[in-house]
Amino acid sequence: xxxxxxxxxxxxxxxxxxxxxxxxxxxxxxxxxxxxxxxxxxxxxxxxxxxxxxxxxxxxxxxxxxxxxxxxxxxxxxxxxxxxxxxxxxxxxxxxxxxxxxxxxxxxxxxxxxxxxxxxxxxxxxxxxxxxxxxxxxxxxxxxxxxxxxxxxxxxxxxxxxxxxxxxxxxxxxxxxxxxxxxxxxxxxxxxxxxxxxxxxxxxxxxxxxxxxxxxxxxxxxxxxxxxxxxxxxxxxxxxxxxxxxxxxxxxxxxxxxxxxxxxxxxxxxxxxxxxxxxxxxxxxxxxxxxxxxxxxxxxxxxxxxxxxxxxxxxxxxxxxxxxxxxxxxxxxxxxxxxxxxx
Length: 343
Known about the structure:
This protein is of the alpha/beta class. It has two domains: 5-149 and 314-327, 3-Layer(aba) Sandwich (Rossmann fold), CATH 3.40.50; 151-311, Dihydrodipicolinate Reductase, domain 2. It contains ten helices and 13 strands. The protein has helices at 15-25, 45-48, 81-86, 108-115, 133-141, 151-166, 195-198, 212-224, 257-270, 313-327; strands at residues 5-10, 30-36, 72-75, 95-98, 128-130, 145-147, 174-180, 203-204, 230-236, 243-250, 274-276, 292-299, 302-309. The strands form two sheets. It has a seven-stranded mixed sheet. It has a six-stranded parallel sheet with strand order 2-1-3-4-6-5, covered by helices on one side. Helix 5 links the parallel strand 5 and strand 6. It is globular and about 60 Å long.
């Protein structure tokens, strides 16, 4: 496309929405036209995001159904809300890129089982794609509805899928240990994210029961055609942003260290936001970027894969824009930072 695409964000007042705004404002092919925030409707952008230019007022999210002047609609809303909005949009309507969970499953029964509610527009699911660009480029480019992965699945899947697709893995389950900064829990304050509760400590939560487990398993079946069991334990750590995944993968006996190295170097070559590093990655090194840093350590019939992403960029807003770039026919890296700031 030669002209700028018109973009709106429904649910723009959260951390993910704010990061989406920050990145879109610097995108050379985008014009941000509409913003919504239900509880903050009527407020100016600067009241919620003083680090951004004050260019607009938040509309009500319930009014998004009247937005008929957009090419792309990003939705950053709680489960069930994005699909209910989609069901009310005028036809034809913009391409929808959902940062929430409504388009992460292709079957409405799976969505109902995981989120304990009906999908608001089940007829749209056959036209949707899972938005993990490194593994779904072709389907994303032609989709009308794109479900951006959750931050924990992003960090885990980017480390698991090259081994799964290559047929290197032995017996499951796969074990994923995830650690996320507090911004991953959202902007609303809870007792668990209150500063005195989280500062100078860390803890696991929802071990084996997190909703991202079925999402990971569903995505792996899409890519490989195989059913894979995942054991996942997430942790909350006292940093603003960043996500580390440590993944324990059983290997078939014939897989050598040289095969693993060759696999990862080819993975890096084919994906502009993948960087293979020589030591365990730090979340500080990817802060503010759309990159994933990956390191693998070989054991006996085992590889430990460590990945680092920024949960608000590669784990949310950045990869949603990466999908948008494919939809509008641009290079997937356009407007997205590869290198961050440090320290």
